[in-house]
Amino acid sequence: MPAVIPANEAARQQELTSFQILDTPPDSSFDNLVALAAEICEAPISTVTFIDSDRQWFKAKLGVESDQTPREQSFCAHAILKPNEFMVVPDAAKDPRFEDNPLVTGEPNIRFYAAAPLVSKGLGLGALCIIDRQPRTLKPFQESALRTLASQAAQLMELHRQRAMAENHRRFLHTVMETLAEGVIVRDSQRRLLAHNTMASVLLGTELKDMVGQTFSMLHFKPVQPDGFPIPTEDLPSYKALATGEPQRNVIFGITRPNKTEIWIESNASVLNDPVHGECAVISFRDVSDRKALEKQIQRDGTTDPLTGLPNRAAFLNYVGKAIAAASRYKHPMSVCVASLDDLKAMVAKHGPHAADSALKHFGTILRATLRHEDSVARLAGDDFVALFPYVDANRALTSLDRFKSTLENAQLRLHDGKEITLTGACGLSDWKPGMSAEDLLDSALKACGEAKAKGRNSVAVAAG
């Protein structure tokens, strides 16, 4: 008769699944156990068996051809019902549980069966068993040996689980790295390349997989500083991170790839203490050539606001157009904020035009300083400034604006006559939506800024829908 399904079957199946051992290839460590069990117990058949939902599956087997049989025919399905007890069936043909079992009435003609359950967290997952075609018993030392071998099998199971978990983690990290739009490189303190993602090869224009284990350095790519001079070795992010133990952020430098093309990259580096390789540098970098080209274009075309030194409206709209193209292609969010200095006309009337100029420069400087490195800031006209938040929607951009408003309020402006004043501003945010042009997005943010001004000083509004 088939074994009953234990009351803890769901938990048992979950624990068995956690080992990730079902349907795995043969393993010599398990094979050696069944061979030793058969030899010690003088039996022609031995298996390491796991009880799945509808079958018994053999991780290791001796004297058995098939890899699995139905659960309802399984002797081991009975063994797991009492996971703390050794199971012996002296003569299956005379045992009411097995006398009509196809494995008894037909091949392999089981008569004798003995098993030590394989247990984890008190749950019977399977058994290490020996089988004979003749009725018999076990000697005490044979039973003891079978229990010991089952304990070793349980240890092998746990080792298999740990290895499977490590491999799952490795695959997870590999998938994450391959999903990134940034290049990622890991090298040790001896400059040996340990790991990389595909984007790193793409950005550097060289096949890095051929260099794993070999010496690797950004010096191979003739790095230069923004002023065009070679970057000192000690200033490269990976070298500096390893030397200081401190993360290096947003370091921009130019490189020359093997095909002689030049690109600008923005790089970060952090130190990772690996148990195998010791101190390693994890380096990430992305292509910022378009931004550098835009900066040069701004300088070349005179698209800079002369008072604040920030890009002007034309430069900003040009950059937003490119950002919209990227957002459309890669389906990432983007938002724009128009920030307007409060009470500029009243300030001019009270303190004069010089005070207004100082206030506008102060306002723009704090806006630029308090936003993220990847955010862009420009002056539109009059008392209006604008900021672009790539990869961030309006709700998340509010965090940056809170930081800006707080800094602005706490940083008093000293005027030419020695007086100190506190500045505030109204902010209007708008999300970019597919189909919106740069002008559409700016108009939406301007409208939201108008709504913020209507609320009163130092207010924020977000464009509807």
Automatic annotation (TrEMBL):
Gene3D superfamilies in the record: 3.30.450.40, 3.30.70.270, PAS domain
Stated name of the protein: Diguanylate cyclase with PAS/PAC sensor
UniProt xrefs under InterPro entries: GAF (IPR003018), GAF-like_dom_sf (IPR029016), GGDEF_dom (IPR000160), Nucleotide_cyclase (IPR029787), PAS (IPR000014), PAS-like_dom_sf (IPR035965), PAS_fold (IPR013767), Rev_trsase/Diguanyl_cyclase (IPR043128)
Coiled coil: none
Domain of life: Bacteria
Residue span(s) of domain PAS: 169-220
CDD domains registered for this protein in UniProt: GGDEF, PAS
Organism: Koribacter versatilis (strain Ellin345)
Residue ranges constituting the GGDEF domain according to the UniProt record: 332-465
GO biological process terms on file: regulation of DNA-templated transcription
PROSITE patterns the UniProt entry points to: GGDEF, PAS
Pfam families, sorted: GAF (PF01590), GGDEF (PF00990), PAS (PF00989)
